[in-house]
Amino acid sequence: MIVETNLTSRQLQAFNLLRDNKSTELFFGGGAGGGKSYLGCFWLVYSCLNYPSSRWLLGRARLKTLKESTLLTLFQVLRTFKLQKDKDWKFNMIEGTVYFSNESSIYLKDLSLYPSDPEFDSLGSTEYTGAFIDEVSEITEKAKNIVMSRIRYKLDEFKLVPKLFLASNPAKNFAYREFWKPFIENRLPEHRKFIPALVGDNPFISAFYAENLKKMDNNSMQRLLYGNWDYDDDPSRLFDYESVVNMFELPQTQKDREMYLSADIARFGADKSVVMVWEGTRIIKVYAREKQGTDITEDANASFAKLHAVP
């Protein structure tokens, strides 16, 4: 089927991979505003129309969020295809399923890992022809693998390979390890593909969207505007990315010295907090403190580092 649409060059590149018979997993995205959800929904609708009686999965971590966001994009795509509601397609809100007149269907699925359902039995035994998971930064690797294992419905009949389409902004989960890192190191296995897409790749998005991204905090801007996978805005992180990068920046007057600070921290027990200042492999100063809170210890260590020009 041919439909008039304005896919970006990045989207078209990914769409062609979604229709090949070589790759089985495609990751698209890396920044906000690149058209991830639109492309995923476009591929699902296109596939439903081209493969009668096929079944497709549309998943996200939370079904409520999926219905409030990605589903609205799906409805937009249905209008793009000029399909009429209740004639060419209908949506069963209770079942969470979109049915097409040619008996194809799209099932909306909650992919969050619940303690009561560690094996994702809630997905049932339904087999699918293909799947699109939106915002994979929110799901676990196990959820992704289980969905992949369910993609086997009528593949031989349609002469298709199992195809899982993943979309997300940068995340430090399996997507980083399995897609981004191998991609930048040029070692992606043949069955996996990665297509980066940023807001700058999407000429159809409002110019105000990019301007709003520039007003965000630096970590969020790096991730969402520039697609920097090594930035992390998780508030529970141990170190922020900027500090990790800057720790190797020596003061200009100290670049001929290798200064370090190591610490063994204690609180109110019998042990002491011991801080050592190193010049190369030589210890030049030792500080010992006892029975003090970690807030005081943190401030003291910062002052020691500043005193000895430790980066």
List the helices and strands and how they pair.
Layout: H1 9-18, E1 25-30, H2 36-50, E2 55-60, H3 63-68, H4 70-80, E3 89-92, E4 97-100, E5 105-110, E6 130-134, H5 141-149, H6 155-158, E7 164-168, H7 174-184, E8 192-197, H8 207-214, H9 218-224, H10 241-246, E9 259-264, E10 272-279, E11 282-290, H11 294-307
Parallel strand pairs: 1-7, 1-8, 2-5, 2-6, 6-7
Antiparallel strand pairs: 3-4, 4-5, 9-10, 10-11
Describe this structure in words.
The protein is built from eleven helices and eleven strands. The chain is an alpha/beta fold and 311 residues long. It folds into two domains: 9-205, P-loop containing nucleotide triphosphate hydrolases (Rossmann fold, 3-Layer(aba) Sandwich); 249-307, no CATH class. The chain has an eight-stranded mixed beta sheet with strand order 3-4-5-2-6-7-1-8, sandwiched between helices. The protein has a three-stranded antiparallel beta sheet with strand order 9-10-11, covered by helices on one side. A hairpin with a 7-residue loop joins β9 and β10 (272-279). It is elongated. The N and C termini lie far apart (61 Å). 32% of the residues are buried. The mean pLDDT is 85.
Features:
311 residues, Rossmann fold, three-stranded antiparallel β-sheet, 11 helices, 11 strands
Describe what is shown at a glance.
This protein has eleven helices and eleven strands. By secondary structure, the chain is α/β, with parallel strands linked by helices. The chain folds into two domains: 9-205, P-loop containing nucleotide triphosphate hydrolases (Rossmann fold, 3-Layer(aba) Sandwich), CATH 3.40.50; 249-307, no CATH class.
